[in-house]
Known about the structure:
38% of the residues lie in helices and 22% in strands. It is an alpha/beta fold. The longest helix has 30 residues, at 335-364. Bound molecules: flavin-adenine dinucleotide.
Amino acid sequence: MTKNNIGRIIIVGAGPGGLTLARILQLKGFEVKIYERESHIDVRSQGGTLDLHVHSGQYALKTAELFEDFQAVCRPEGQDTRIIGKSGTIYYEEVVPDKNYDRPEIDRRDLRQILLKSLKKDTVIQGHNLLDIQSISNGQHKLTFDNGVTDVADLVIGADGAWSRVRHLVSKEKPQYCGATMIEAQFTEVDDRHPEISKLTGRGTMFALSDNKGLFAQRNGGNQIRVYITLRVPENWIIESGIDFDQPQQVRTHLLELFSDWDNSLLNLIQVCDDNFIPRPLYMLPINQKWETQQGVTLLGDAAHLMCPFAGEGVNLAMLDATELALAITNSTDLTQSIHEYEQKMFSRAAESSEESLTNLDLFISPDDSAKKVCEWFKKMMEGALQNNNENSVTA
Ligand SMILES: Cc1cc2nc3c(=O)[nH]c(=O)nc-3n(C[C@H](O)[C@H](O)[C@H](O)COP(=O)(O)OP(=O)(O)OC[C@H]3O[C@@H](n4cnc5c(N)ncnc54)[C@H](O)[C@@H]3O)c2cc1C
């Protein structure tokens, strides 16, 4: 199949998955357009930091010929981990050696910038919120946007995240609540304004865990720290709690009550953070979500397999999906068959990670002294990783 007879390729969503797909397809000589809902990359908070793994996120960037750009801005030291009990006792501390590139961190905004800049001019059409997509004939689909614009695609890829509007073409599944809600808070200019928070967090991530709750503090680039205050609460807690999330003082008072028996050093994460709290209830698609391959349409990333963020795999899988799909399209002699093969591999790796993320959620946000359990889990994981490394170096 030549590049021309695939026809018009449209990606919906300029997240890490959609951008990676567009980049690799362009490198392979394809014409591609992305429609993106947001009018600008900075229009809303881009979220925090992401760790990119060797065989998925990093592999995608190598295939996209952007690995050096990534290395220039990533933070290998961001892999440091600290686990603390609610009394403030440190149970576990891992400081990664210099130049360890297993899972370096990068701010989501920086990652998107690298990918965006690599695309041909006018690839991303911003400010286009997909309202509706319908199949017409011969595998073509008609897309309708909220500004009245319409377009027709021969191949459409839904990379439009958790609440995908493309998903209904392949699956009837809808995201279900995971059982936990995060409230995102932030410290800007943290080293100067809050050196004690800077010290508590360290260079990477600090988890304080107990009693079905968690305070996760993560160092981001640009002298910032993000905090995820995590609670095991019902789906409609945000409304039922009566908290007005636009009133920071009200949010603080309520949260401080919930954590009232935690050490003051940890409560500072709520007490002195910036005046902006963003509630994020966590959703996931069914673990074994699958569908029959449809002509002219497929999904990748969160649109295909949304999971809770406790395996640290979401962005990595989105970028790996994008890479494998781009290569499947490039090498295709029968596009529907190539998409089918891509989907089968995606289903199986997504199911594994989704299951892991749910198991980890139950471990981290569990009753009693969950910090101790998580500490044992981290130690075992590190021993396993060390053993693997040793075996690899023996067999190499
Ligand atoms: C609090 C939190 C922490 C996380 N931490 C990690 C982590 O440490 N590591 C990790 O690997 N993953 C993490 N994740 C998950 C990760 O963010 C996602 O898995 C990843 O962003 C998925 O990428 P994507 O490209 O599939 O979708 P997204 O990043 O969601 O991008 C979708 C894009 O589509 C656009 N869009 C949506 N609807 C429309 C529409 N109707 N029309 C047009 N455009 C549309 C959106 O604006 C967006 O730009 C975390 C998630 C959360 C919520």
